[in-house]
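Supplementary Data S3. Sequence and structure tokens for construct A.
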Amino acid sequence: MDDLLVAPTRLWTPSRVLVTQSASELPHTAEILRRCEAAGVADIDILPGDRLTGLRGESERETYARAKTTMAVVVAPPSVLKPQPIPPSADWRIDLAKGCPAHCQYCYLAGSLSGPPITRVFANLDDVLAGIGTHAGRGSITSGTEERGHEGTTFELSCYTDPLGIEHVTGSLAEAIRRVGAGAYGDDVSLRFTTKFDDVNELVTLDHGRRTRVRLSVNADDIAHRFEGGTARMPARIAALRHLALAGYRVGLTIAPIMPIPQWREQYGRLLSDVAYALRDVPDLDLTAEIITHRFTPSSKDVLLSWYPGTKLEMDENARTAKRNKFGGVKYVYPKDTMAEMRSWFTDELRSVLPEAQLLYWT
């Protein structure tokens, strides 16, 4: 397995770690603190209570900057512990943490998480993972379906964080993979997560039992370079995909968020060709693809503009189509003709360049 070990190109290490009193008493916190100390974190503060304070600066930009370098170790409340349906990705959502260290200018979390965007890691890991056992055999996205039934009951770990981006200071992801790989919650369950990071050294040594699918979030070079700050570059992500596949993991591509930028066909075509070359000789390859177009809501736009006031990200409501949900919420997506053109091209190109890839959904 040594030939799979490579130096990661991007690691996030918090400048400050806050540990709530309740979290400090839990066994997984000891592992988190061990990893933080090994990573060189000098500012670790065990709080006298469970309230996080002092997170705001004098401006939105200062608050953002302070939050993005802070990690809080907290206890997940009961509302977080109950798995939630998460179509079309998986049967259920399991949250190891909330918040992400990356600086993506289209951030999916903007507007959906309240307060400064610090990364909150859940110390009561046993409670968090217990939902896998209680919900095994339930669900409608993969459980019992013809197309994805072989995955068993699926649990998505990356709805509110990038678990690999924080793994070297938490250890939560490796522990989840170990337990599921060993059948701790039954033989018919699997994990899945998406990442923009490439530190897979620990993951490729784990006995994962082929019960975890790791998807690398990939995009056109112009989009990744301009809008995905603090993440691994595209060649490093594709290399990580190869290392994981060679280590026997089920793997996938999350091509997101796709945008009709100038020469988008050429750029996405090169991306798919690079992936195909990286995976060309992987034995027993199990590869999926999920394709997600860029969209935004009024609230997420407001948050993103406060975080990145100089962004060049296109968020023009007049150039989009408003799409409303049953609760009255609105999001702005690309016009119907643009969506149809991109969908047709991606479907054909994926079939041609990566015929082994199973397209799970387009949205």
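Construct B, processed identically:
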Amino acid sequence: MTVQPQAISTAVDYVKAPLVYKGKVRELYDLGEHYLIVVTDRISAFDYVLEPAVPDKGNVLNSLSAFWFSQTEEMLPNHVVHTDVEKLGDLVTEPELLKNRVMVTRKAERIDIECVVRGYITGGGWRQYVQSSAINGIALPEGMRKNEQFPEPIFTPAAKNDIGHDEDIPYERMEELVGAELAAELRDRSLELYRYAHGYCKERGIILADCKFEFGLIDGKVILIDEIFTPDSSRFWSEGNYELDVEIDSMDKEPVRTYLLGTDWDRNSMPDPLPEAVVTATSARYREIYRRLSGSELK
């Protein structure tokens, strides 16, 4: 029997620095000149943070982001300073627990736009299309089929909301919010990054259906921040599962969503704890996407 690694729901007991932000998964600690991001194993679905945490989920998200930031740093600088827990010294009381889930970053001014690129018409984009034949105000041809690939990927931004859902907006509204010059740079950077990663994934039998980016400014220059091309920020499909007009099983927390939708949960209250089998299957799913994308096992 394989022993599951310890799941981490929070790092507050292991980090001797002020906690300045706690998201659904990430925690941000102030180190003075830099931030420390710790990626926990918390998992969310349908706007609820669920119990229990999923072992290795945070390790995968952080390790994959570090991998992709390294792969793309010549295309666009990012916020990473290092991911070495040993360099944190006595700021971390349990370095072995946190060794794969820490990222020390430069402090950037966050641009409050979520930059979404869609290569295939699925998910929320498909739902918009069914209603209006458009996505974020972009008119699309009649008769497109669910999961169909666009001739060229499309850029569909959202205005970030720290409380509640991000709001899909037309590109013209993004120009009003951040200025035409910056909007164009963010759009072009996002499309360039998507095209690169889509090609990389395709060589490994994976389809990158869509993804989202966050950008920041340091000394007026745009850099990548947050996370990139992880199962929490991107939709990955195995090429063997690709099909039109169906719900494709994505390579992320799909076992959790499938389980919840198969219960009598009312979706208006905190669901019961996830069964062990669902947690185990989800943990394995995250480790598998890491192996296929990075070419190595999670250490």
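The longest strand covers residues 206-218. The mean pLDDT is 95.
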